[in-house]
Amino acid sequence: MGDVLGIVLKRLGLGLITLLVISILIFFAVELLPGDIAEAVLGQGATAENLKAMREQMGLNEPAIVRYLEWLWGAVRGDFGVSLISQRSVADTIGPRFAATLFLACYAAVIAVPVAITLGIIVALLRDSVFDRVANVLTLTSISSPEFFLGYVLVLYLAVKNPLFPALANVNFQDVGTFELYYKTFLPALTMVLVVVAHMMRMTRASIINLLASPYIEMARLKGTPAWKVIVKHALPNAWAPIINVVALNLAYLITGVVLVEVVFVYPGIGQLLVDSVTKRDFPVVQACCLIFAATFILLNLAADVGAILTNPRLRHPK
Amino acid sequence: MNYFVIGYYALLIGASCLAAYYSARTVFLLLFSLTLVSFIVGIVGGESSLWTITICAGLLALFGGTAFAFREFLAIVLPTEASKAIKTAPLTATFGLFVIMTYAIAGIFAPIIAPYGEAEVIAGAFAPADEHMLLGADQLGRDLFSRLVFGARNTVGIALLATTFAFVLGALAGLIAATLGGWFDQLMSRVVDVIMSVPSLIFALLLLSILGTNAFVLIVIIAVIYSPRVFRLTRAVAGNVVVMDYIEAARLRGEGLWYLIRREILPNSTAPLIAEFGLEFCFVFLLVAGLSFLGLGIQPPTADWGSMVRENATLISFGEITPLFPAGAIALLTVAVNFVVDWMLFRSSGLKG
Amino acid sequence: MADEKKDLLLKIRDLRIEGYSDEKWLEIVHGVDLTLHKGEVMGLIGESGAGKSTIGLAAMGFARDGCRISGGSIEFDGMELTTTSESDRRALRGSRIAYVAQSAAASFNPAHKIIDQHTEAPIHYRIRKRLEAQEDAMELYERLRLPNPQEIGFRYPHQVSGGQLQRAMTAMAMACRPDLIIFDEPTTALDVTTQIEVLAAIRDIVEQFNTAAIYITHDLAVVAQMADTIKVLLKGNEVEEADTETMLKSPKEDYTKSLWAVRSFKRPQKSRPGGDAVPVVSVENVDAAYGDTKVLSNVSFDVYAGMTVAVVGESGSGKSTTARCITGLLPPTSGKILMNGVDMPPSYKDRTKEELRKAQMIYQMADTALNPKVRICDIIGRPAQFYMGLRGAALKSRVDELLDLIELEPSKYYNRYPPELSGGQKQRIGIARALAADPTFIICDEVTSALDQLVAEGILKLLDRLQKELNLAYMFITHDLATVRSIADEVVVMKQGEVVEAGPKNEMFTPPHHPYTDLLLSSVPEMDPNWLTTVLEERGVDNIGEAATV
Fold first, then answer.
1. Does B115 reside within a domain?
2. Do C374 and B251 touch (CB under 8 A)?
3. Which residues of C209-248 are buried (b: 16+ CB within 10 A; e: fewer)?
4. What are the chain A neighbours of B28 within 8 Å (beta carbons)?
């Protein structure tokens, strides 16, 4: 097991370094601004005194490296500075919104993951049949549609023409009951489910077909093992790594693909906040959102890799 | 129960029986599954949902017919080699080709096809469709149809430029990394790992917030964000070629890097690279559309599908279908390209499934 | 005879199998008959694409995905497999008909212990309870002379070596004591010294349990040891069938004769030029490593003009690595490569055009050695253009001359692409490309091992002629001793990155020599059906395992 632990630790270390490099990237990207933040925020009408005051307030007179280290140290403790527009603490602005986004992503994932994996396996077993071809066309169509197209189609048919669900999901988390919450956020969740299920089905199908082509599956069949037992005993124990991979990649997708869906449904999540901040050029908020998205993305990819390492029999039982 | 419903089921069940009788297994399975689905949908959604199914089936038949006719047309027009390939192509692929061709024509001849200019105000805000305006007017009173046609030029044009740029950047770096190996390969791979560990939409938003939004910046940013994907694929494809003995023979002859890439590696990597270009285009196109939809892509008054959806979105709440046209146009092109790529990948891999 | 009828186990008549490619079904086996009696071993032999494996699987009533049995009958012990239900057919697999696959490493499920996979079938068919089945497995492991039979089954497949895994798979096939076992190239992926153990083990166990077997292989010498009768296949058709003795002594069909043709080509052995002749290439005390793994240590030998040095050894012995050191692809960590007495820069990148030109290489797989997207004239013409600066008409006449030299008609092949040529023709193009540089030294890396006997012999004759005409020095990397006998002047034996023994050919083929040379030479199967028995007797059966690990 020491071997596996080493590999996992190495992978974790690599993830940490990547995150560090990205934090550098995110911080210094802002330094690319013509002039500096103060000029960008105050615009052309700014007087010299205004600029000076702002620079002082933001600590811009210090060298970039010092400011980076301060920012990073703050970020580690959950302090991302102060918003340029609202003057509120960035962490306070982001906190509830990030929770809202996570809620939506989990809602979608809980529906999408079991459905997609089941359908993916079924389609893989029925490969080259009519159902497989129909599924191929449908999933391709779903993947190819922009999220806002699916979103608006759902709104048109399930909210406007047949008023089953509310078209907007601008919920206030404090004021709604549990059931109402699920009901109001159903359409955004469904939109994400549609896209993610298509992706996941295709990936699951591909990895299962790949698996079924292994010589050891043929060997199992040639030993007279019944079909269900071939799947359960011989295919499944080797399928964990690809399935974990598929799930993690799609969860990562959920977290980021949520931006467009939030805008369509006016959902108070972190994606909506990011878009607003980009429009208003509120850099501290943009930086914080990007760091959070990147960290989540890296974390999920890391989870996929670690999962694959832990379920690999060759690594679990070293020579 | 009325005549439509009775006719609907009679037709489906009759056709299923016929298919079963002539042992057309595939057709039977399809028709009978549709019958069963109709039972459920009909009970839940009533007659109108059956109408929807009928319309969908009609549309599907129309698409299928178009694709079939277009395939026959191509098979006759194209030279023997290509015509042979086209004959075995699935209908989805020829449908994709047809759509791509239509978009190309619309984009190239936009000023001739569009009845009005792209920023020309000709009616009141949200004026309904009449004999002058095929799809009505948008929120400023501009002809929606004309703007859709111009959008083909602007949105697709930008996506195409960005894809090409990303492709040249990524493919070149990938080929050099695969051929040279060593520190260059290591360095590029690490850089690519970092870029790819930030979600592309987020990265684009970060850079756009700093660099501002204009078409040139947009193209460069997207090219930088998507070139790592091309790099990885090219490196993998070229990596499979580089281990071949004929490359070793050429190296041992003393051939230079450029000769190796141009004469030995590139000719053996074209098929997967072309398919990747199609896929890459889909990603870039969706990203461009998404950014425009968020108001951070192509800026008004340039006609662009993403921003058109955003500008007309309010109409949705009145049950109007208009905002879905630009969104549908985006989806249709992406689907079409994906269909063609799917076929090309199938052909180049030779694998089933 | 009534007796014969009672013994009948498998009767295949007019078997036709189709494969799916390019959206249509194509027949790949065209009406093959096969009759097998109880306890009989039949060898199926043919090149790749002959349909051997497909027929072997069809004997189990099984067709791979993308294949289907389209006609004929398969009768196993009175049961017609083409018409019975899939569940009845499945009930035969593993219990009465078993299968041993080519790659044991890929065919064992990496997620389960070997013994759990072994006992799966007997438990499923309720032949034995789990513990009994495990006891039985250990006994079979012992009979197959696996080390630690009590313990080895409780390991995972990746923890066991290839040769042992192949024997464990044979044991698994035996688990239900089947009437028939299909062996599908069970030793192809193994080294010769490992192969002999596996062959002996398989032959013993099949004899002990009087199991019938179909032994599929492309190696004639192997099948001669294993089979009672041999059936030769070509492109899905039967060529001929006879008992092993007759087949080897007097084959009827031309194709079979060509397969059996013993190397008739042999040239006199040359000895080193006397006096102070400088070797074309000398390898002096070369060490080399991939990363931290040392792969060559202290390798030295010389190659003189007009002579052929054969380098023999198993895979992993360092033969090809030595070649990479000479060409400069893998710079040695210490030691020197001299050409005509001049020290070469260790890496090919630092060598001059002239230095690169003098040493050329011919590869084993002509398919991967020629760029499929480049025309023949450009493949051959490029070195002439690159080194000699030939252009236009001069280049064309040089290419024509080279094509003439390798006995291919210039007008016919000038504008073709490699995929349009046969294996032998491709190999000739590879030779022409090497000659185009006008070299003094050529490395031939297993150049004949992917070719049929007759074609290979043509290539060897061509190489010999060219050597005489152009006074070339060859370094011939091979594992085939017949090739060594026919073409080598000197032999270098390598093992685990070291030279075990070196000297003139006639000395190497006459005892006494180094124990490893002995083991290697005696492990290479020969066409004589009694070869395996004789070797085993010479070594003493019980010593096989030890001998292999020397």
1. no
2. no
3. eebbbbbbbbbbbbbbbbbbbbbbbbebebbbbbebeebb
4. none
